[in-house]
What does this fold into?
Amino acid sequence: MEAHGGVKQDDEAVDVWEDGLRVMLQQDAEPLPPRVVKNLNILMGSFARQGNVEQVWRIVHRMDKLNALGHLRRRATTHNFNALLFALLMRPSEDTATTAESIMSEMQSSSSRQPDMESYALLVQILLTSNDSQAFDKALEAARKALYHLKRDSKRPSVAVKTLRAIILAFCRADRPEAAEEILVLLCELAEEQRTTKPDMKIFSAVVQAWGRSSHLQAAVRAEKVVATWKELYRQGLVSGAPDIGTWRVLLSCWNRSSLQGFGQQVYDLTMKIRSQTTRADDKNGGLNTFVYNQSLLSLGRARMVQEAEKILHLMHNDHYSNTSIAAKPDCESYSAVIGAILNDSRVGVDFNERVTNVLQMV
It folds into this structure.
Protein backbone atom coordinates (compact mmCIF):
# COMPACT_ATOMS: atom_id res chain seq x y z
CA MET A 1 0.00 0.00 0.00
CA GLU A 2 2.28 2.76 -1.25
CA ALA A 3 1.58 6.45 -0.68
CA HIS A 4 1.41 8.63 -3.74
CA GLY A 5 1.53 12.39 -4.29
CA GLY A 6 -2.15 12.75 -5.05
CA VAL A 7 -3.57 11.55 -1.72
CA LYS A 8 -7.27 12.43 -1.77
CA GLN A 9 -8.08 15.07 0.81
CA ASP A 10 -11.36 13.64 2.02
CA ASP A 11 -12.59 11.15 4.57
CA GLU A 12 -12.44 8.27 2.11
CA ALA A 13 -8.62 8.41 2.26
CA VAL A 14 -8.52 6.97 5.78
CA ASP A 15 -11.07 4.29 4.91
CA VAL A 16 -8.97 3.19 1.93
CA TRP A 17 -5.86 3.12 4.12
CA GLU A 18 -7.57 1.07 6.84
CA ASP A 19 -8.77 -1.47 4.27
CA GLY A 20 -5.17 -1.99 3.24
CA LEU A 21 -4.07 -2.08 6.87
CA ARG A 22 -6.50 -4.89 7.68
CA VAL A 23 -5.04 -6.95 4.82
CA MET A 24 -1.52 -6.39 6.14
CA LEU A 25 -2.52 -7.38 9.68
CA GLN A 26 -4.06 -10.59 8.38
CA GLN A 27 -0.64 -11.41 6.90
CA ASP A 28 0.92 -11.17 10.38
CA ALA A 29 3.20 -8.31 9.40
CA GLU A 30 4.61 -7.56 12.86
CA PRO A 31 5.82 -4.91 13.17
CA LEU A 32 4.31 -3.14 10.20
CA PRO A 33 6.73 -1.80 7.55
CA PRO A 34 8.06 1.78 7.96
CA ARG A 35 6.08 2.86 4.91
CA VAL A 36 2.88 2.44 6.95
CA VAL A 37 3.94 5.18 9.33
CA LYS A 38 4.99 7.29 6.36
CA ASN A 39 1.55 6.88 4.79
CA LEU A 40 -0.13 7.76 8.07
CA ASN A 41 1.92 10.95 8.32
CA ILE A 42 1.02 11.87 4.74
CA LEU A 43 -2.67 11.44 5.46
CA MET A 44 -2.38 13.31 8.72
CA GLY A 45 -0.63 16.25 7.05
CA SER A 46 -3.30 16.35 4.35
CA PHE A 47 -6.14 16.45 6.87
CA ALA A 48 -4.32 18.96 9.09
CA ARG A 49 -4.00 21.42 6.18
CA GLN A 50 -7.75 21.09 5.64
CA GLY A 51 -8.46 21.72 9.30
CA ASN A 52 -10.06 18.27 9.56
CA VAL A 53 -9.50 17.79 13.28
CA GLU A 54 -11.69 14.69 13.53
CA GLN A 55 -9.69 12.70 11.00
CA VAL A 56 -6.34 13.74 12.48
CA TRP A 57 -7.57 12.57 15.89
CA ARG A 58 -8.71 9.32 14.27
CA ILE A 59 -5.23 8.66 12.89
CA VAL A 60 -3.52 9.57 16.17
CA HIS A 61 -5.72 7.12 18.07
CA ARG A 62 -5.17 4.44 15.42
CA MET A 63 -1.38 4.84 15.77
CA ASP A 64 -1.59 4.49 19.56
CA LYS A 65 -3.77 1.40 19.23
CA LEU A 66 -1.42 -0.21 16.70
CA ASN A 67 1.47 0.46 19.07
CA ALA A 68 -0.43 -1.16 21.95
CA LEU A 69 -1.03 -4.24 19.79
CA GLY A 70 2.66 -4.41 18.92
CA HIS A 71 2.23 -3.52 15.24
CA LEU A 72 3.99 -0.14 15.46
CA ARG A 73 7.27 0.45 17.29
CA ARG A 74 6.07 3.73 18.83
CA ARG A 75 2.93 5.68 19.63
CA ALA A 76 1.88 8.89 17.96
CA THR A 77 4.75 11.37 18.40
CA THR A 78 5.12 15.06 19.16
CA HIS A 79 5.15 15.65 15.40
CA ASN A 80 1.76 13.95 15.07
CA PHE A 81 0.25 15.96 17.89
CA ASN A 82 1.61 19.14 16.32
CA ALA A 83 -0.35 18.20 13.19
CA LEU A 84 -3.43 18.04 15.41
CA LEU A 85 -2.73 21.54 16.78
CA PHE A 86 -2.18 22.80 13.25
CA ALA A 87 -5.57 21.38 12.22
CA LEU A 88 -7.18 23.31 15.07
CA LEU A 89 -5.46 26.50 13.92
CA MET A 90 -6.74 25.99 10.37
CA ARG A 91 -10.35 25.72 11.50
CA PRO A 92 -10.91 27.71 14.71
CA SER A 93 -14.13 27.39 16.69
CA GLU A 94 -15.45 28.51 20.06
CA ASP A 95 -13.77 25.67 21.92
CA THR A 96 -10.52 25.60 19.91
CA ALA A 97 -8.40 27.11 22.69
CA THR A 98 -9.79 24.68 25.28
CA THR A 99 -9.15 21.73 22.97
CA ALA A 100 -5.60 22.91 22.26
CA GLU A 101 -4.82 23.21 25.96
CA SER A 102 -6.23 19.72 26.51
CA ILE A 103 -3.96 18.36 23.76
CA MET A 104 -0.95 20.08 25.32
CA SER A 105 -1.83 18.52 28.69
CA GLU A 106 -1.99 15.08 27.10
CA MET A 107 1.40 15.64 25.49
CA GLN A 108 2.93 16.80 28.77
CA SER A 109 1.68 13.67 30.53
CA SER A 110 3.65 11.42 28.16
CA SER A 111 7.43 11.16 28.19
CA SER A 112 7.46 10.09 24.53
CA ARG A 113 5.71 13.14 23.07
CA GLN A 114 6.57 16.18 25.12
CA PRO A 115 5.63 19.55 23.55
CA ASP A 116 8.43 21.16 21.56
CA MET A 117 9.03 24.66 20.26
CA GLU A 118 6.57 24.19 17.40
CA SER A 119 3.88 22.94 19.80
CA TYR A 120 4.08 26.11 21.87
CA ALA A 121 4.20 28.30 18.77
CA LEU A 122 0.99 26.72 17.48
CA LEU A 123 -0.62 27.12 20.90
CA VAL A 124 0.25 30.84 20.89
CA GLN A 125 -1.45 31.33 17.54
CA ILE A 126 -4.54 29.37 18.61
CA LEU A 127 -4.90 31.26 21.89
CA LEU A 128 -4.63 34.64 20.20
CA THR A 129 -7.58 33.79 17.94
CA SER A 130 -9.82 32.89 20.90
CA ASN A 131 -12.16 35.00 23.02
CA ASP A 132 -10.71 33.72 26.28
CA SER A 133 -10.16 36.65 28.67
CA GLN A 134 -6.90 35.05 29.79
CA ALA A 135 -5.78 34.11 26.29
CA PHE A 136 -3.12 36.81 26.03
CA ASP A 137 -1.39 35.88 29.30
CA LYS A 138 -1.51 32.19 28.36
CA ALA A 139 -0.12 32.95 24.90
CA LEU A 140 2.76 34.96 26.33
CA GLU A 141 3.63 32.14 28.72
CA ALA A 142 3.55 29.65 25.82
CA ALA A 143 5.84 31.93 23.81
CA ARG A 144 8.35 32.02 26.66
CA LYS A 145 8.30 28.21 26.79
CA ALA A 146 8.98 28.11 23.04
CA LEU A 147 12.08 30.24 23.63
CA TYR A 148 13.15 27.91 26.41
CA HIS A 149 13.05 24.99 23.97
CA LEU A 150 14.95 27.03 21.40
CA LYS A 151 17.76 27.64 23.90
CA ARG A 152 17.93 23.90 24.63
CA ASP A 153 18.03 22.89 20.95
CA SER A 154 19.87 25.30 18.67
CA LYS A 155 20.79 22.73 16.02
CA ARG A 156 18.13 23.92 13.56
CA PRO A 157 18.44 27.72 13.46
CA SER A 158 16.32 28.17 10.32
CA VAL A 159 13.44 26.22 11.86
CA ALA A 160 13.81 28.18 15.08
CA VAL A 161 13.60 31.54 13.33
CA LYS A 162 10.60 30.40 11.30
CA THR A 163 8.81 29.26 14.45
CA LEU A 164 9.56 32.41 16.43
CA ARG A 165 8.55 34.54 13.47
CA ALA A 166 5.14 32.87 13.57
CA ILE A 167 4.84 33.72 17.28
CA ILE A 168 5.89 37.35 16.82
CA LEU A 169 3.60 37.84 13.82
CA ALA A 170 0.71 36.33 15.79
CA PHE A 171 1.19 38.91 18.55
CA CYS A 172 1.48 41.66 15.92
CA ARG A 173 -1.78 40.61 14.24
CA ALA A 174 -3.44 40.59 17.67
CA ASP A 175 -2.25 44.20 18.16
CA ARG A 176 -0.05 43.20 21.07
CA PRO A 177 3.23 44.87 20.07
CA GLU A 178 4.58 44.82 23.63
CA ALA A 179 4.51 41.01 23.64
CA ALA A 180 5.93 40.82 20.12
CA GLU A 181 8.76 43.12 21.20
CA GLU A 182 9.48 41.03 24.31
CA ILE A 183 9.90 37.88 22.24
CA LEU A 184 11.94 39.79 19.65
CA VAL A 185 14.30 41.10 22.34
CA LEU A 186 14.85 37.56 23.66
CA LEU A 187 15.49 36.33 20.12
CA CYS A 188 18.02 39.13 19.59
CA GLU A 189 19.83 38.23 22.80
CA LEU A 190 19.95 34.63 21.64
CA ALA A 191 21.31 35.73 18.26
CA GLU A 192 24.14 37.64 19.94
CA GLU A 193 24.95 34.65 22.15
CA GLN A 194 24.80 31.88 19.55
CA ARG A 195 25.34 33.87 16.33
CA THR A 196 23.42 31.15 14.46
CA THR A 197 19.78 31.86 15.33
CA LYS A 198 19.33 35.12 13.44
CA PRO A 199 16.12 37.18 13.22
CA ASP A 200 15.26 38.47 9.76
CA MET A 201 14.22 41.97 8.76
CA LYS A 202 10.58 40.91 8.23
CA ILE A 203 10.25 40.21 11.95
CA PHE A 204 11.61 43.63 12.88
CA SER A 205 9.40 45.31 10.29
CA ALA A 206 6.29 43.57 11.63
CA VAL A 207 6.98 44.73 15.21
CA VAL A 208 7.62 48.32 14.09
CA GLN A 209 4.36 48.28 12.11
CA ALA A 210 2.50 46.89 15.13
CA TRP A 211 3.73 49.82 17.20
CA GLY A 212 2.73 52.06 14.31
CA ARG A 213 -0.89 50.89 14.72
CA SER A 214 -0.81 51.15 18.50
CA SER A 215 -2.45 53.92 20.54
CA HIS A 216 0.03 53.35 23.37
CA LEU A 217 1.43 56.65 24.70
CA GLN A 218 4.99 55.34 24.35
CA ALA A 219 4.44 53.80 20.89
CA ALA A 220 6.90 56.11 19.14
CA VAL A 221 9.63 55.52 21.71
CA ARG A 222 9.10 51.75 21.63
CA ALA A 223 9.17 51.68 17.83
CA GLU A 224 12.33 53.79 17.88
CA LYS A 225 13.93 51.30 20.26
CA VAL A 226 13.10 48.36 17.96
CA VAL A 227 14.63 50.20 14.99
CA ALA A 228 17.78 51.00 17.00
CA THR A 229 18.19 47.30 17.89
CA TRP A 230 17.61 46.38 14.25
CA LYS A 231 20.34 48.78 13.09
CA GLU A 232 22.81 47.47 15.67
CA LEU A 233 22.24 43.80 14.78
CA TYR A 234 22.54 44.65 11.10
CA ARG A 235 25.86 46.33 11.86
CA GLN A 236 26.98 43.09 13.54
CA GLY A 237 25.85 41.03 10.56
CA LEU A 238 23.08 39.30 12.51
CA VAL A 239 20.19 40.62 10.39
CA SER A 240 19.98 40.27 6.62
CA GLY A 241 18.86 43.83 5.87
CA ALA A 242 18.80 47.32 7.33
CA PRO A 243 15.66 49.39 8.07
CA ASP A 244 14.17 50.59 4.78
CA ILE A 245 12.12 53.59 3.67
CA GLY A 246 8.88 51.88 4.67
CA THR A 247 10.17 51.41 8.22
CA TRP A 248 11.20 55.05 8.54
CA ARG A 249 7.76 56.08 7.32
CA VAL A 250 6.05 53.98 9.99
CA LEU A 251 8.34 55.49 12.62
CA LEU A 252 7.52 58.97 11.32
CA SER A 253 3.82 58.16 11.58
CA CYS A 254 4.32 57.17 15.24
CA TRP A 255 5.99 60.48 16.05
CA ASN A 256 3.38 62.42 14.09
CA ARG A 257 0.73 61.05 16.45
CA SER A 258 2.84 61.58 19.56
CA SER A 259 2.77 64.36 22.12
CA LEU A 260 5.89 63.24 23.96
CA GLN A 261 8.58 65.76 24.74
CA GLY A 262 10.79 66.32 21.71
CA PHE A 263 8.30 64.87 19.21
CA GLY A 264 8.68 67.86 16.90
CA GLN A 265 12.42 67.41 16.50
CA GLN A 266 11.93 63.68 15.87
CA VAL A 267 9.37 64.49 13.15
CA TYR A 268 11.67 67.00 11.51
CA ASP A 269 14.74 64.74 11.60
CA LEU A 270 12.84 61.73 10.23
CA THR A 271 11.19 63.76 7.49
CA MET A 272 14.58 65.05 6.36
CA LYS A 273 16.09 61.57 6.62
CA ILE A 274 13.38 59.98 4.47
CA ARG A 275 13.63 62.79 1.93
CA SER A 276 17.39 62.24 1.61
CA GLN A 277 16.92 58.49 1.05
CA THR A 278 13.93 58.61 -1.30
CA THR A 279 14.47 57.90 -4.97
CA ARG A 280 11.95 58.26 -7.77
CA ALA A 281 11.58 54.46 -7.78
CA ASP A 282 10.03 54.46 -4.30
CA ASP A 283 8.57 57.96 -4.55
CA LYS A 284 4.91 56.92 -4.62
CA ASN A 285 4.89 53.81 -2.45
CA GLY A 286 7.85 54.07 -0.11
CA GLY A 287 8.92 57.68 0.13
CA LEU A 288 7.37 61.00 1.07
CA ASN A 289 4.09 61.88 -0.60
CA THR A 290 1.78 64.82 -0.02
CA PHE A 291 -0.13 63.12 2.80
CA VAL A 292 3.02 62.21 4.75
CA TYR A 293 4.49 65.68 4.30
CA ASN A 294 1.24 67.29 5.49
CA GLN A 295 1.21 65.17 8.64
CA SER A 296 4.74 66.34 9.39
CA LEU A 297 3.83 69.99 8.74
CA LEU A 298 0.88 69.76 11.14
CA SER A 299 3.08 68.11 13.79
CA LEU A 300 5.73 70.81 13.45
CA GLY A 301 2.98 73.41 13.88
CA ARG A 302 1.88 71.70 17.12
CA ALA A 303 5.49 71.71 18.31
CA ARG A 304 5.84 75.44 17.47
CA MET A 305 8.74 74.59 15.15
CA VAL A 306 7.64 77.15 12.58
CA GLN A 307 10.93 77.71 10.80
CA GLU A 308 11.35 73.97 10.28
CA ALA A 309 7.81 73.77 8.87
CA GLU A 310 8.57 76.60 6.45
CA LYS A 311 11.79 74.89 5.36
CA ILE A 312 10.03 71.60 4.67
CA LEU A 313 7.29 73.33 2.68
CA HIS A 314 9.93 75.05 0.52
CA LEU A 315 11.73 71.73 -0.03
CA MET A 316 8.45 70.03 -0.86
CA HIS A 317 7.59 72.80 -3.34
CA ASN A 318 11.04 72.77 -4.95
CA ASP A 319 11.23 68.97 -5.17
CA HIS A 320 7.92 68.76 -6.96
CA TYR A 321 8.39 71.60 -9.41
CA SER A 322 11.97 70.61 -10.20
CA ASN A 323 10.61 67.11 -10.98
CA THR A 324 12.68 65.55 -8.18
CA SER A 325 9.53 64.18 -6.58
CA ILE A 326 6.32 63.41 -8.46
CA ALA A 327 4.32 62.35 -5.39
CA ALA A 328 4.91 65.31 -3.06
CA LYS A 329 2.94 68.10 -4.68
CA PRO A 330 1.94 70.74 -2.08
CA ASP A 331 -1.83 71.14 -1.75
CA CYS A 332 -4.18 73.44 0.18
CA GLU A 333 -3.57 71.54 3.40
CA SER A 334 0.20 71.94 3.03
CA TYR A 335 0.00 75.71 2.74
CA SER A 336 -2.71 75.98 5.42
CA ALA A 337 -0.63 74.00 7.90
CA VAL A 338 2.35 76.32 7.55
CA ILE A 339 0.27 79.52 7.54
CA GLY A 340 -1.48 78.30 10.70
CA ALA A 341 1.88 77.60 12.33
CA ILE A 342 3.11 81.12 11.42
CA LEU A 343 0.00 82.79 12.83
CA ASN A 344 0.40 80.81 16.09
CA ASP A 345 4.08 81.70 16.40
CA SER A 346 4.49 83.34 19.80
CA ARG A 347 7.96 84.72 19.20
CA VAL A 348 8.38 88.48 19.62
CA GLY A 349 9.02 90.60 16.53
CA VAL A 350 7.82 88.06 13.98
CA ASP A 351 6.69 89.64 10.71
CA PHE A 352 3.52 87.61 10.16
CA ASN A 353 2.43 89.43 7.01
CA GLU A 354 5.71 88.99 5.17
CA ARG A 355 6.01 85.30 6.01
CA VAL A 356 2.40 84.49 5.15
CA THR A 357 2.82 86.38 1.89
CA ASN A 358 5.92 84.31 1.07
CA VAL A 359 3.90 81.12 1.54
CA LEU A 360 0.99 82.38 -0.56
CA GLN A 361 3.36 83.26 -3.39
CA MET A 362 4.22 79.56 -3.71
CA VAL A 363 0.61 78.61 -4.34
